[in-house]
Write a structure and sequence with these properties.
CATH superfamily of the domain at 2-163: Macroglobulin (MG2) domain
Structural class: mainly beta
Number of strands: 54
Number of helices: 3
Distance between the termini: 149 Å
Strand content: 35-45%
Largest sheet: 5 strands, mixed
Radius of gyration: 40 Å
Helix content: under 10%
CATH class of the domain at 2-163: Mainly Beta
Shape: globular
CATH topology of the domain at 2-163: Immunoglobulin-like
């Protein structure tokens, strides 16, 4: 026998069942205080499901009384206590389960896994109880005239049949193989593996531009483009010279920033002329680019949203992620509904601090007060003012209902602890690993003007030791008057850089010890990576540290030992003065790094040849690249799609796997057996922007997209996709016909000869690729019996040769002459 209370799916089933049962429980009638105290009968119930069940499969055991504990009120008041279950196995042995305490509505549950075949019996017993206003929580409940009354014992029985064969498990639906859109139907739980959101704010802190969830594109297939501003070549000869392009605001007025993706919707501010905002705020469909709503927040005195939130709120009366989630303006000023763009509520009194997301989507801030020697955790969901009935212990005190309120969140702290007095004044938080460790620093890092020592320290964030000092180290400046720069921190390692020599050092967050470094110097132009603002040049993910920038290279180091694992290089040739394309790290997702091109105040026209790049995080091999001056500060991935602003044309690009459509045709009339027929059809790109263009191979995708969307020459060597042709023959057999490859118009064809008469179903299948989801089409053809051969006439006797004809004719003439002669002789007198 095994007992468990940690099965997530069974727990969810049980909680749902409890809520259903609660609606039918008996509530005692109103009574006045009475003496003597009463003895009140109870009725016990027991359910064991599923029944029957297979051996070693888990059953859900639910027990309850019909009476709700009269003093129970939310988390306060009494509960029914001492529930026990006696289990008798098929072999006669007995087991005791419990004791258990009920929930506020008088029920509870456990899980039981039988290990024998046969019939199990269960006996549930409630021993009786004198009612109190204080239950196991110690929180006072509601008043009741039944206090100190005795609720009498009761019991219930149930049986469980256990069979050898297991019953069918709860279905697990497979991951998608065809083009999909949101909403994801609630039973497709495994689809969390392919879906994701980009919330900004705390989402980008700690690990910087690391998307930990979902999938990301393995091909440069374009889903859609959407103009943000006039872009590209202006046209004409009298404006700035031949080929002059529009300003892109690339450095000080960068466009398409603060991009958020929630629930398959892309949110971003619209620019107004050269300004990066001021033109309103939009929500568009991530897959199609269709605008879903527009709001001008600044016109009504609100700022644009700067980060998003999904929060899973769980209580006795409410379960699941808060409907629609929230778009938040800066510092939680206002909550905006992502579905409509309407204002919901606001919060004030939010303290400054180091921000991270919690496990349920709560946004927390670690607030350090060195002078006061305390550390606190502010929680965006902790203020009681967010509840329907703040401060109440009743059910409505545990319902999330902030809409329409002005909420003072200054009391929204989860905990506050004292920190050691040894932590130096002037310290600040450098990095946080939630529920684990906090890294702090005191003093100024060495620079050309200051070479003073500095201090790092760490305190525990583990639940049983929050605030305890783990270590504190003083560090001397590096030799050579070097400037030291603090960079990424994650996975237990924080990274420092020698700015002048472009070398990296890795330190252990748990000990403060140097793990590795300094590394070998990187390429010379990398110096400007640490001095030019607006760039993201390094990040941590998958146990590796990645560095890029003006060097035009990506360097990958082992996070634990600093070993250089690989280097990815670009080559700009004569296109710019660097010899490489300076790169910005857009984001890391699904085992890939997405890179854009960066230049401080880029010239107009821009250099030619810049590309958006996708590189494998393990090998450094290029997965794909696509022509485009991708503004990496705008690169974001979610739900398998990458979005960025292309400064070559000032359009938003969405990259990802798109839908395809397959057609197939055969001759409409039945064909005689033995006749060859041509099977033909098309495979096209079904994204709205492609307008029916051919679906092309992954290998041809970059040039094909550049032709379709960037006015580049049509590629001469592009190849289509492979189509599998199969048939169901007249006898019901599935027969593979062959494969065909489509061309640049999307057409494929195949010549085939049916082998037996009857009706054939022809199936053309495009299995999909990294660029497209799969599609298929069917048609049918009839094949007739071969017609009977026409009757052949009897063969004529063979004719004699020419010489014989001549001989016979001569003989006939001689005979005729002779006959005539004889007749003349007979007539003489």
């Amino acid at each position: 026998m095994k007992i468990s209370r940690n099965n997530t799916k069974a727990t969810a089933i049980a909680l749902l069942l409890m809520l259903t049962i609660a609606a039918t429980l008996v509530v005692l009638p109103v009574a006045n205080a009475h003496t003597p105290k009463w003895d009140i009968p109870t009725w016990a119930y027991l359910s064991v499901t599923p029944n029957p069940v297979g051996v070693d499969q888990t059953a859900l055991v639910v027990m309850w009384l019909t009476l709700v504990p009269p003093t129970a009120s939310g988390v306060g008041g009494d509960r029914w206590r001492g529930f026990t279950i006696e289990v008798t196995k098929p072999d006669g042995t007995k087991e005791a389960l419990g004791p258990f305490t009920s929930d506020p509505v008088g029920s509870t549950w456990t899980l039981y896994t039988p290990d024998q075949i046969g019939t199990y019996s269960f006996v549930f017993k409630f021993p009786g109880q004198v009612l109190s206003r204080y239950g196991p929580t110690g929180i006072v409940g509601g008043t009741s005239a039944y206090e100190n009354d005795t609720f009498l014992s009761s019991s219930a029985t149930a049986s469980l049949t256990v069979q050898q064969a297991p019953i069918a498990p709860v279905p697990i639906y497979p991951l998608p193989t065809e083009y999909w859109t949101r909403p994801i139907e609630g039973q497709n739980e495994e689809w969390y593996k392919v879906s994701s959101n980009w919330l900004r704010g705390a989402h980008e802190m700690g690990n910087l531009r690391f998307q930990e969830d979902g999938i990301a594109p393995n091909s440069p297939h374009i889903m859609w483009t959407k103009p943000l501003l006039f872009g590209g070549v202006v046209g004409g000869t009298n404006i700035g010279g031949n080929g002059m392009t529009f300003y892109d605001g690339s450095q000080y007025e960068s466009q398409f920033q603060n991009v958020i993706i929630m629930y398959g919707r892309l949110y971003y501010p619209l620019p107004l002329s050269h300004a990066s905002s001021g033109g309103g705020y939009v929500c568009v469909d991530l897959r199609t680019g269709e605008q879903l709503w527009y709001q001008n927040f600044t016109a009504v005195g609100l700022s644009n949203p700067s980060f998003g939130q999904f929060y899973d709120y769980e209580s006795m009366n409410q379960h699941g992620v808060i409907q629609n989630g929230y778009l938040w303006t800066s510092n939680f000023g206002n909550a905006i509904d992502p579905m409509t763009g309407l204002r919901l509520f606001n919060m004030t009194g939010v303290p400054s601090g180091t921000e991270v997301y919690g496990p349920s989507g709560e946004i927390v801030r670690y607030v350090l007060n060195v002078a006061g020697k305390w550390l606190a955790l502010w929680n965006s969901t902790a203020s009681p003012n967010l509840m329907a009935n703040p401060g109440s212990t009743s059910f409505d005190g545990f319902e999330w209902r902030p809409m329409g309120r002005y909420i003072n969140a200054s009391n929204g702290y989860s905990w506050n602890v004292t920190i050691p007095t040894s932590i130096p004044t002037g310290s600040s938080i450098q990095a946080v690993i939630p529920n684990d460790i906090l890294l702090g620093r005191a003093g100024t890092l060495p620079s050309l003007s200051s070479q003073a020592p500095y201090t790092y320290w760490a305190i525990s964030l583990k639940p049983n030791s929050i605030g305890q000092l783990l270590w504190m180290n003083n560090y001397s400046p590096p030799p050579g008057n070097i400037t030291l720069v603090s960079e990424s921190a994650a996975e237990g390692v924080w990274i420092m850089e020698y700015k002048e020599t472009m070398q990296w050092l890795g330190y252990d967050m748990y000990t403060g010890n140097l793990l590795w470094g300094p590394t070998a110097p990187e390429s010379a132009f990398g110096y400007y990576s640490a001095t030019t603002g607006g760039m993201t040049t390094n990040s941590i993910a998958y146990g590796k540290f990645y560095s890029t920038g003006y060097s035009g290279n990506v360097y990958c180091y082992d996070l634990k030992n600093g070993t250089l694992l690989w280097t990815y290089k670009t080559n700009s040739g004569l296109n710019n003065a660097y010899g490489e394309y300076p790169m910005d790290l857009g984001c890391i997702a699904d085992g890939k790094i997405y890179l854009g091109t960066h230049e401080h105040s880029a010239n107009a026209p821009h250099w030619k040849g810049a590309r958006v790049r996708c590189v494998d995080t393990d090998t450094g091999k290029e997965v794909w690249s696509l022509m485009g001056w991708g503004a990496a500060f705008s690169s974001t991935t979610a739900d398998g799609y990458l979005v960025y602003l292309n400064l070559y044309d000032n359009q938003i690009y969405c990259i990802g796997k798109g839908p395809s459509a397959t057609t197939v045709t055969v001759p409409d009339t039945a064909q005689p057996l033995g006749t060859s027929v041509v099977i033909k059809g098309t495979v096209i790109d079904k994204t709205p922007a492609a307008k029916g263009a051919a679906a092309m191979s992954d290998a041809s995708m970059s040039q094909w997209m550049e032709y379709l969307y960037m006015q580049k020459p049509i590629p001469t060597n592009a190849t289509g996709v492979e189509v599998t042709l199969d048939t169901i023959d007249p006898n019901g057999n599935f027969v593979h016909i062959g494969t065909a490859t489509s061309d640049m118009s999307g057409l494929f064809s195949y010549m085939w000869t049916p082998e037996v008469p009857g009706k054939y179903t022809i199936i053309a299948t495009f299995a999909g690729s990294e660029s497209y989801w799969s599609s298929y089409a069917e048609t049918a053809i009839g094949v007739l019996e071969a017609p009977p051969a026409p009757a052949q006439p009897e063969p004529a006797a063979p004719l004699p040769p020419y010489e014989m004809y001549t001989l016979y004719a001569t003989i006939a003439i001689i005979i005729a002459i002779a006959i005539v002669g004889l007749m003349l002789l007979r007539k003489r007198p």
